[in-house]
């Protein structure tokens, strides 16, 4: 159904404001208040005619099984009534929310103007891949939403609708001026280019401008980059919001000589490069997980190695040095260079820092276990005791001081099980969970080049990596070089390639078989690992779900 809304002396121009905001999942009343304030500010600061907020903004995205709560519908209806009564007049608002209509639950976007809900659109394309599980919760919409506001022909499409063919095809030939699109599109590497390429094609296909509004901030393992933009009919980006920043971005539309409404050139922030994007994603994910969970700050073990060093820098950039505490827990195999570099980094970043030797704890455990272990040779059991003693100390500090333990293992290690259950895996969140080791080195160098000094000591970056759980131990003693390991892991985890396919790429068959076997047999460890920021197309967690117990032969 089409409906005319609003009156204006001239329809020659229109200001659309993209409200790039960070909702809190489940905080419906708080998100409602955020929406009211954003619309008020957009009207005052930018003389907005239309304000577009992200997908499912009232619940935050993704709300997951909160959608199944009996109380949800009532809270949403209360929020919609509050928006109608509180939002400033003379501005049209497009906002996302879940709603039950005629016994079915929909992912909806509503159009509010002068206290009245004018339109309601139901998302037609429900993604059910990678991290998305919308078909578990929602019914599909079946009709487009086209309406006129102040002489402008508008249509609504929600996120995946623009990635799917059918919804856009229903708008072809409808003389649409602007497609307004609320989004909840999570970040992964290369996502900026992927989005803009697809949206440019859709704009040309529909012969309409697209206002693409994305949310921002972290939600559990997902992180949203914002990076909202306006695309004209020719598929050219005319206005681009900054990535990784909350804010309101206005876009001016005016009639051209042919009386077609066209977006004018506005602010145009460049996409950050891969390392900057990735680092910002990690900072955003850690910041929001800690803050939205209500922790005072974080504590982490600082070993003098590169993973904990990068994790410390991320934590400080996310929370500030006053909310970060580092603990060096040396044992007999901890090198003096590790002690020196950990202390140097802690001083450089200005964080709280303690040194807690674990030898007395390890010796106490060893003595207690001596009778049970009599006659058995030493092996990784004794190495793991060191890591588990460290985990106990960190959890005690967490409990006593209200600090969340930030674990520091990278994706390469988590993939092959190079981590200790109830030891270095102990914690509440992991900033590097989806970051391969080779990328850890790149990010560390990138962070040191940002103009505020060497926050990660150069020796930490250049020395051979080691868990320091045995004399002269190096990671390369038990794993291929990280450049090779990461390439094999990328093929196997993110591309789902078989052993033979990976070997055909030129990798050593024994290396590939060993890596695949390690990945397959350590699924049980990853199930018990803390959540962490997802930054690749296929992280461990929501993306990749494999049975722990199975008869599949490695490499098939």
Care to describe what's here?
The chain has 556 residues and is of the alpha/beta class. The chain has 2 domains: 14-257, Nitrilase/N-carbamoyl-D-aminoacid amidohydrolase, CATH 3.60.110; 276-470, HUPs (Rossmann fold). It is built from 16 helices and 21 strands. Helix 5 packs across helix 6 (306-319).
Question: What's the total number of strands?
Answer: 21
CATH class category of the largest domain: Alpha Beta
- Report the span from N to C terminus: 54 Å
The chain-level mean pLDDT equals 91
The main pleated sheet reads as: 7 strands, mixed
* Helix content bin: 25-40%
Given as residue ranges, the uncertain stretches (5+ residues, pLDDT < 50) are: none
Count of discrete domains: 2
Q: Quaternary state, please?
A: single chain
Question: Which labels suit this protein?
Answer:
Nitrilase/N-carbamoyl-D-aminoacid amidohydrolase, alpha/beta, 21 strands, nucleotide-binding, Glutamine-dependent NAD(+) synthetase, 2 domains, seven-stranded mixed beta sheet, 16 helices, Rossmann fold, 556 residues, EC 6.3.5.1
Task: Please outline the helices and strands.
Blueprint: E1 4-5, E2 13-20, H1 28-46, E3 50-52, H2 72-86, E4 92-101, E5 104-113, E6 116-122, E7 145-149, E8 152-156, H3 165-169, E9 178-183, H4 191-206, E10 209-214, E11 216-219, E12 222-225, E13 229-231, E14 237-240, E15 247-255, E16 261-263, H5 274-293, E17 297-301, H6 306-319, E18 324-328, H7 336-349, E19 352-355, H8 359-369, H9 380-401, E20 403-407, H10 411-416, E21 429-430, H11 437-448, H12 458-462, H13 482-494, H14 499-504, H15 509-521, H16 523-527
Parallel strand pairs: 1-7, 2-3, 3-4, 8-9, 9-10, 17-18, 17-20, 18-19, 20-21
Antiparallel strand pairs: 2-15, 4-5, 5-6, 7-8, 10-13, 11-12, 13-14, 15-16
Protein name: Glutamine-dependent NAD(+) synthetase
Keywords: ATP-binding, Ligase, NAD, Nucleotide-binding
Family: In the C-terminal section; belongs to the NAD synthetase family.
